[in-house]
Fold this sequence. Notes:
Blueprint (H helix, E strand, L loop, with lengths): L1 H16 L4 E4 L16 E3 L8 E3 L5 E5 L10 E5 L6 E3 L1 H13 L3 E6 L10 H8 L3 H27 L11 E6 L1 H8 L13 E4 L18 E6 L7 H13 L4 E6 L18 H11 L12
Parallel strand pairs: 5-7, 5-8, 8-9, 9-10, 10-11
Antiparallel strand pairs: 1-4, 2-3, 3-6, 4-7
Amino acid sequence: MKFKLLAYLLLFTAYFANAQQKVIQLYKGNAPGSENWTWQEAVSEHNAANTRKVYNVVHPSLGIFLPDPAIATGTAVVICPGGSFQTLSIDNEGNEEAKWLNEHGVAAFVLKYRVIHSLTNDPVSEVTANYKTQSYHDNVVQLFPLALADARLAISYVREHAAEYNLSPSKIGIMGFSAGGTLAAASAYKYTPANKPDFVALLYPFFPAELQSEILPDAPPMFVTAAADDELGLAPHSVDIYQKWVASKHIAELHMYTKGGHGFGMRKQNLPTDKWIERFGEWMGLEGFLKPNPIAVR
Length: 298
């Protein structure tokens, strides 16, 4: 009986170490700039994207995933899922990456940032129908500063609470996919000491030149990956920011896959893109972000 109980406890501990442990709200009360939003956050389980989508986010939050203290590195990653600024691919570009990072001693904070208001319960179809319209473009322009504020605040929150989560305040990075990659890339510009990312990972980001500004002298190291056959035509955005980072004498690594399309995330396609996160792990190790954490609770 004692053996069965011990086995159960060990199994529960192993599961818990790789599951979301709590959720915190980024703002006390209504988020600035969207005080009048009255719609309710929802989840689309069945859609053309074949992945779970969160939409109508009004109150930005962080889902917190912490690694086993025995393997903790003190490194954390804020993860910004993609979804065309109207949805969040919360599993394929969020929770699944968080679990992989936990297995490698890295804490993860999956960000639900504010997105464009969906008028139906099928936000994926709304995006497909409206993606090339002027009204959609205008909505993105209005939404972007709010979502970027959420991403910056997420970095600040993790740094401010580093001791609580057994983290190093100088090992806090941000990872973003597609639209989330726009936020992650933008966070590498015009930062403050509180919200500066210590490293940045960009997955098939949308990041045109008009969103870019001066690369600061202490800009963070950057990992970039995309597929050349990205059906949204975003591969050049990854090449552009990589080239500018290297030209400004900052650390950068680029993986441009031949095939993989847009939005591959953790989806298995039997292609080299299936292993991108392993390449990211290798890069983190090379840059010193996977060293054992001397302040971790053991």
